[in-house]
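Annual report, structural modelling task.

Input specification for the fe (ii) ion complex:
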Amino acid sequence: MKNRTYTPADRFLMGLDQALQTLFGHPRVTERPNPAAQLPETDLSEEQRDRTARMMRINHTGEICAQALYQGQALTARLPAVRESMERSAQEENDHLAWCERRLRELNNRKSLLNPIWYAGSFTIGAAAGLAGDKWSLGFVAETEHQVCAHLEDHLGRIPLDDQKSRAIIQQMKEDELHHATLALEGGGAKLPGPIKLAMKLSSKVMTRSVYWL
Ligand SMILES: [Fe+2]
Ligand SMILES: [Fe+2]
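The model returned the following structure:
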């Protein structure tokens, strides 16, 4: 498969298929079990359940964005080594996506209606990062993952301690994101300029605020 050359039309259709799978289907996951699977369900108050579900919805959309970023980057990354090293990370993001989606259902909530918009935006940003060159694109992954870790830590501080299932998922995600960041830095990721980091923080703020409601 890897040696095959694809035409731009092939690539476009494959990308479209991947986008639809990510947004509406069941993307391919790894062999890893859902960290919440063996943990007991808890009795949350209506208000606690709603608030937690909205946080899981944000995390779910975050994973949609992660997929889109990786897919956009894979399209434009120059070194095949970069593509390959990101493939496993991207697949682990699919685990996160599946775990968050399942937890959302268990908490009687739904995915964000804004997912297609956030997918499109993140895909474009990922492709642009890939075009800027591999060291920037890897640096972008590392910075994104570090910001996601901080955000997940914040959620861990707000999700009820009794909700072991949600917490186990977030905890595992946090470990994975940190690992993805380390891989990207080891792969030659550059440190991003301050204004770019700030712009990333601002856009993720817009995402989390909007997805909390929609
Ligand atoms: Fe993730
Ligand atoms: Fe990640």
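Residues 61 and 164 are 21 Å apart (CA to CA).
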